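Work Package 3 (structural annotation) set out to generate three-dimensional models for the target panel prioritized at the project kickoff. During this period the team completed the workflow that converts sequence records into discrete structure tokens, so that structures can be stored uniformly alongside our sequence database. As a representative example, we reproduce one entry of 299 residues exactly as it appears in the project archive.
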Amino acid sequence: MKTASFFSSASCQVLEGLAEPSLELSVIHVGMEECKPFHTISDPRTEYILHFVISGRGFYSARGTTEALSAGQMFLIVPDEPIVYGSDRFDPWTYAWIGFRGDRASSILKKCGFLGNNLTRSIRCTEEAVACIREIMDHRSLAPSSMLFRESCTIRLFSLLAADYETAARESWMNTSVSRDSLYTELGTAFIKEMYMHDSITVEDVAAHIGITRARLNRAFQEELHISVQQYLIDCRMRHASRLLLTTPLSIKEISGQVGYSDQLVFSSAFKKKYGASPKLFRESHHEDGTGGPAASQP
């Protein structure tokens, strides 16, 4: 059975040459290395790479900022960006890494805490993350079964990172003077903006994502936004629909599906209730007078 390229020495293990079975997300290579002092790398990459610092210390320089990193931290390399990273002189780091690319890579990384220019973060599940990388390295075959196993390990790894980030975010909020109502509202609105296009999403789903009851979440929304969770979800969908009506040639049926309505009639009724006009009339009237109308407003 054909296998990927695997290199192993006393201080380094690398699995590379992996097939890319999916345009959405594919692992390119994984590895672990016990670096020597002053071991420095500065070559831009064409894929995303996450490094997990297992022990020791080093530095990472990107986007005009240099940070000292140590065990329990991780850093992200973004494709085609200049970077420099290297190990400490007296306590060189050991790290594991995973390189990947795909259409979903950017959105997944945001869920894992890599937002804006933030390319580093602390992590409390380093051991579990490294275990996923070890499992990937142990399955070197290019057979479909091994490719699917590597894919499952990769998704499990990102699930660990996302859960770790969510926990850290909640704790950070709880340790500030911001009220719990504000925290729940912030988490709820973020989840809705991410998931509004799915017709199956419910208020219970939003509450379950945060870990509270529907009633508690509604109370928080009413206190902070003076609106129910359900109404916020509807408003979010309507605003996105109004923008699509004004900026794309998509049919009303297509737009209905893109904003979470499987039934075009239900969508049209909700839209008319929000804006006082049917989607068809809304599009025609705004195209005639050249205004952007409510579509300029963002949820």
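Residues 144 and 283 are 48 Å apart (CA to CA).
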